[in-house]
Specification:
Layout: E1 21-24, H1 29-41, E2 48-51, H2 55-63, E3 75-78, E4 81-84, H3 85-94, H4 111-123, H5 125-129, E5 146-147
Parallel strand pairs: 1-2, 2-5
Antiparallel strand pairs: 1-3, 3-4
Length: 148
Amino acid sequence: MNRYSYKNDPAVPPFPDEHPIFVFDAECVFCSGWVQFALKHEREAKYRFLAAQSEVGRALYRHYGLDDRDYEMNLFLEGGRAYFRSAATIRVVAGLGFPWSICRLFLVVPTKWADTLYGLVARNRYRLAGKTTACFVPNAETRHRFIL
């Protein structure tokens, strides 16, 4: 995967990136539920969320060598770095603050094991939680946290 900055890629439209960004499958009930969980528990409101199905989301997936039609892998951008699979998920959860910050300990689990578990859930996410016919839409209270 191309871990170089998307800022140097003319194929990625400009977007506000001064906050950490979680790119998620907005048609997946499981993924949208995860975003709602993060919105509820993240007290600092530092995260921004971006639908993988959006123009910017698809461009970021292509930039990092991901399939821009199958959003099985989440993407987390923080501090100029891109994180994928389990590392992305663990970093987002740990960043929610106490008591979730203890999840940072999972970063010591070998990546191969953590990504295997992540892959199992990701491949079965529609079977586990379903798929919507429309992308997740934030409410007026949280809309400022989304890159639209």
